[in-house]
Each structure stands twice: as structure tokens, then as C-alpha cells.
């Protein structure tokens, strides 16, 4: 860890309780009106001192805004990052051990979410992903929170990430009084995306390879296949210069397809998604991408996926176009890094100067409190 980040983390770890108390007593009581990603007009307290996250992985976004301590305001959250992205959780926990004490509230889309605990936590704001909108409306959660004086806003980094990430970051930046940080990141995001778009716009459709995305490849070794439709990773592939195989079957998020259909079409490129799910799913074959991933383990898992019955006959495996990527990019404003990796895989000659590794380093150095490390994407080595 570099010295600046170490000093910063030590300072904020020792001052965490004081900072929280100050934010609760001295934060401006000004109320502002915002429009969230669901199109709802919401009155929220500007610069709230206590918030609840409907998903723990929203920390990926808060870390871009509250850069000194993204947990400073968080009084409750869902434990999905802890369970499904443990490498990121450990990296943050090392810097901010007080985060271990944050109230774990379960899934707001299910009965396990404890509304009484949310209200008792003193939360002034609940931030939810857009995918929870319908359940939150049907269950009455939003109205009950409002009656208790707790505002709810919806953001989106998963349903339509390339359209909604900038707006979501700007929304949070305004609410959290971190507009300068929001502007800096969204300017960077736009510039990194433009490095892809400016080239892809010139590629004829017939020169864009067909790409099959295997969602959570090997998570359950006995099941295949789940894929993405015209949104999320499917959209990222299309924008990076490919033609997503699943888009013709699923106009929405995605679904399950038969292995026979994949084998029959024999797509030119295959990209699986993976993460460190070894504890969440013992016996998984998924590629354990993350901040603690090792190249040799990544290659072993990729080789095992390519060696499943029938897969070695596919042209993507035979032609060295069998890849895998960090699953958590699918719910993160950092997805532009994955898109740069896709662009390099799909059109290596056109993107010879694009360096997603350097982009990942710069993302962490400029915007995030944790250091880059581990492995987040890979191609099956030819000698496997």
C-alpha cells in the first residue's frame, strides 16, 4: 500500500467515531429536491450523516465520492459484497475495520429486510438499486420509510449501466455534497468510454464478432448456461465492438439457454464471468477474480472450464478467444475497464494502444482508497 493511502486510512480509522458524531450534529439540515433514476421526485437531507445501502456493492460508488472513508456515513447495508466479493471486502476492511460493525440488514427485496432496524439505526437516507423498485413499491417500504422521515433514492449501475452510471454518480454527489468528486469521476468515465466509442463507431457490423457471455461460468459446475441479453454485460459487449449472442433471445437482462444452442452456433468469442465465490459456493469451478486472485489459479480454472465436455471443440477455445472477466463489473461504475478489455480482445489491431491494466491502476490511484492488485480478467493460455 502506498504511504499516502496508509496515512490516510490510519487517520480515519482512529477518528471514525468522532467523524460520525460530528456529521450527525453539524451537517447542514438543508433539504433539497432531487429526481432519482426511477424518475421519482424526492426530498432528501443534503449531506446526510447516516445512510443505509440496499446493496453492499454500492460501496464501489460511495468510494468514488467519500474517498477518505466510504463507510463514514453507512449505518446499515446488505452483506452481498461480504459474501460475493470477499476480496474487495477484505481490502476495505483492512483500511476501515470499523466497517465490520455496520448493521447487516439482508435483502430489501425480501421479507428478511428489517424495516424497524433501518428506522432505529437513525438513517436519514436509504439508497437502493433500480432493480429493487418494484418490490419496494409493492411491499410499501418506500411509504413506510417516508412516514418515518427516511428518504429513499434509486440509482442504477446494473440495469442500464452505460446510460445511468453518470446520472447515478451525479445524483449521489449532489446528495452527499461531493459534487466536485462526482464531476471529476464522471469526466474521467466519459473520456475512458470515448476511447472505445471513437474506434468502434468506425467498425462495420459485419466485422464485429459474435460473443457468447457465460454468466457466472462454473459457479455451479453441473449447470450451464446463463447468459446476458441486450442489457448489462450484453450491452457492454455490443458497445465494445462485438455482437452479443444473447441479445437476440433476451431483450432484457438475460436468462438460461441450452448448451446445445451454444454449441450449434459456435460463437467466435466466449467470455465467462467469475469472482471469488469459493466460500459462497464450495466446489465451484468459477474463475476467482478479485483483489487476491493469482494468475496460476485463474489459468487453472479457465482451463477447467474450457475442458468441459464439448467445449474444446468450439472455435473460441481453439482460436485463443476464450476469456473471462470479473463478475462484479456488472454492478459497478468501473465497467468501462471491462469494456476496454473487451475491445482489446475483440479488435486487438484497432486497440493496440489501449491498456486496460493502466486504466485500472489509474482508477485506483486517482479515485479509490484501496490499492489495485489481484487479477480481474484473463485469456486462456495457449499451452493449457
Automatic annotation (TrEMBL):
Keywords assigned by UniProt, alphabetized: Signal
Highest taxon in the source lineage: Bacteria
A UniProt-annotated Pfam family: Peripla_BP_2
Listed SUPFAM superfamilies: Helical backbone' metal receptor
Coiled-coil residue spans: none
Domain Fe/B12 periplasmic-binding: 50-354
Signal peptide: 1-21
Family matches, as PANTHER family: MOLYBDATE-BINDING PROTEIN MOLA, VITAMIN B12-BINDING PROTEIN
Entry protein name: Iron complex transport system substrate-binding protein
Source species: Pontivivens marinum
Amino acid at each position: 500500500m502506498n504511504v499516502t493511502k496508509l496515512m490516510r486510512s490510519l487517520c480515519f480509522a482512529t477518528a471514525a467515531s468522532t467523524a460520525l458524531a460530528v456529521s450527525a450534529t453539524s451537517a447542514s439540515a438543508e433539504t433539497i429536491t432531487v429526481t432519482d433514476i426511477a424518475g421519482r421526485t424526492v426530498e432528501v437531507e443534503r449531506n446526510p450523516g447516516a445512510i443505509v445501502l440496499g446493496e453492499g456493492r454500492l460501496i464501489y460508488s460511495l468510494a468514488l465520492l467519500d474517498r477518505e472513508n466510504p463507510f463514514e456515513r453507512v449505518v446499515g447495508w446488505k452483506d452481498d459484497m461480504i459474501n460475493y466479493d470477499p476480496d474487495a471486502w477484505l481490502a476495505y476492511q483492512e483500511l476501515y475495520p470499523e466497517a465490520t460493525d455496520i448493521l447487516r440488514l439482508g435483502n430489501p427485496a425480501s421479507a428478511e429486510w428489517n424495516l424497524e432496524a433501518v428506522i432505529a439505526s437513525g438513517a436519514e437516507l436509504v439508497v437502493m438499486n433500480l432493480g429493487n423498485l418494484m418490490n419496494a413499491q409493492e411491499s410499501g417500504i418506500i411509504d413506510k420509510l417516508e412516514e418515518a422521515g427516511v428518504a429513499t433514492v434509486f440509482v442504477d449501475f446494473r440495469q442500464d449501466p452505460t446510460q445511468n452510471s453518470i446520472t447515478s454518480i451525479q445524483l449521489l454527489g449532489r446528495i452527499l455534497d461531493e459534487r466536485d468528486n462526482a464531476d471529476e469521476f464522471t469526466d474521467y468515465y466519459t473520456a475512458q468510454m470515448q476511447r472505445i466509442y471513437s474506434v468502434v463507431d468506425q467498425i462495420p457490423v459485419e466485422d464485429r464478432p459474435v460473443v457468447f457471455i457465460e454468466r457466472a461460468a462454473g459457479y455451479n459446475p453441473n449447470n450451464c448456461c446463463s447468459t446476458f441479453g441486450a442489457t448489462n454485460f450484453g450491452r457492454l459487449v455490443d458497445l465494445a465492438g462485438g455482437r452479443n449472442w444473447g441479445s437476440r433471445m433476451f431483450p432484457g437482462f438475460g436468462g438460461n439457454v441450452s448448451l446445445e444452442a451454444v454449441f450449434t452456433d459456435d460463437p467466435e468469442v466466449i467470455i465467462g464471468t467469475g469472482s471469488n465465490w469459493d466460500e459462497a459456493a464450495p466446489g465451484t469451478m468459477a474463475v476467482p477474480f478479485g483483489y487476491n486472485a493469482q494468475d496460476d489459479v485463474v489459468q487453472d480454472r479457465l482451463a477447467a472450464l474450457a475442458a468441459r465436455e464439448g467445449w474444446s471443440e468450439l472455435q473460441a477455445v481453439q482460436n485463443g478467444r476464450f476469456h473471462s472477466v470479473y463478475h462484479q463489473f456488472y454492478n459497478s461504475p468501473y465497467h468501462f475497464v471491462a469494456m476496454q478489455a473487451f475491445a482489446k480482445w475483440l479488435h486487438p489491431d484497432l486497440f493496440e494502444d489501449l491498456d486496460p491494466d493502466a486504466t485500472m491502476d489509474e482508477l485506483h490511484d486517482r479515485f479509490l482508497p484501496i490499492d489495485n492488485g489481484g487479477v480481474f480478467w484473463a485469456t486462456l493460455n495457449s499451452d493449457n
